[in-house]
UniProtKB/TrEMBL annotation:
One of its GO terms (molecular function) is protein disulfide isomerase activity. It comes from Brugia timori. This is Thioredoxin domain-containing protein. InterPro entries: ERP44 (IPR052643), Thioredoxin-like_sf (IPR036249). Coiled coil: none annotated. GO terms for biological process: protein folding. Signal peptide: none annotated.
Length: 239
């Protein structure tokens, strides 16, 4: 986040070619300021976040803390579409913040040098899940760093790329990465989560139609995976 002491300073420093989020706060503390700081950290690569504090902004603060967008002629939906990319990277640093958004994860574990699969995954998400942005978080993860979740899924670096849904109760493996680009396959996988089919087949036998989820290990294993995403061990951070 970038601090400014006056609107004149803000106007001199702001880049009108970028998407800017400007906030005015009475003081640099409290739930609203803390939430703004979290969002700024999460979306630091997509938007520029500014904040002004205190008496110098009394007119702006007349009705309480204030948030505005620059340029001003954009809608909130446009801001959300531009500020929150379709696919984001999950890291040790932002895992807890992503979890706090409350949406299940669709995670692509891949080798960090595999640029091609990143492109393919992003294209498929844009094509198949354009209307699911508010119901699932599409993410990619460095398979070398997130080795523990892969191990609990029964996978290794040699199995990358691996695609899975984390519902925070279970994890469900996408059955065949070769079918990722088959029209409708990725979308059906996500819709099966929302309909309860993946959860039902996890506990019982597959539905009469072909199952969308591969057999997996115990619930305890999946809970451990979730914990790794939200409370990463300190030793892993410094490897």
């Amino acid at each position: 986040m970038q601090n400014f002491s006056s609107n004149a300073e803000l106007n001199n420093q702001i880049n009108p070619k970028k998407l800017n989020i400007v906030a005015y706060f009475d003081q640099p503390s409290g739930p609203e300021f803390d939430n703004y700081r979290k969002v700024a950290s999460l979306l630091r690569d997509d938007c520029v976040f500014w904040f002004g504090i205190g008496e110098a902004f009394r007119p702006e603060l007349a009705k309480g803390n204030r948030l505005e967008f620059r340029p001003l002629n954009v809608s909130l939906q446009w801001i959300m579409d531009k500020c929150v990319p379709l696919v984001r990277e999950i890291t040790f640093e932002n895992a807890e913040e992503l979890t706090e958004e409350g949406l299940p994860f669709l995670i692509l574990f891949r080798h960090p040098d595999d640029v091609q699969i990143d492109k393919i995954f992003t294209e498929q998400v844009a094509r198949e899940l354009f209307d699911q942005k508010s119901s699932i978080n599409c993410l990619y993860a460095d398979g070398k760093k997130f080795v523990h979740p892969l191990q609990h899924l029964g996978k290794t670096m040699e199995d990358l790329p691996v695609l899975a849904i984390d519902s925070f109760r279970h994890m469900y493996l996408f059955p065949d990465m070769k079918s990722l680009t088959v029209p409708g396959k990725l979308r059906q996988f996500v819709l099966d989560l929302h309909s309860g089919k993946l959860h039902r087949e996890f506990h019982h036998s597959p539905d009469p139609t072909q199952s969308s989820v591969l057999p997996a290990s115990s619930e305890t294993t999946f809970e451990k995976v979730r914990i790794y995403f939200t409370y990463i061990e300190i030793s892993d951070r410094h490897k």
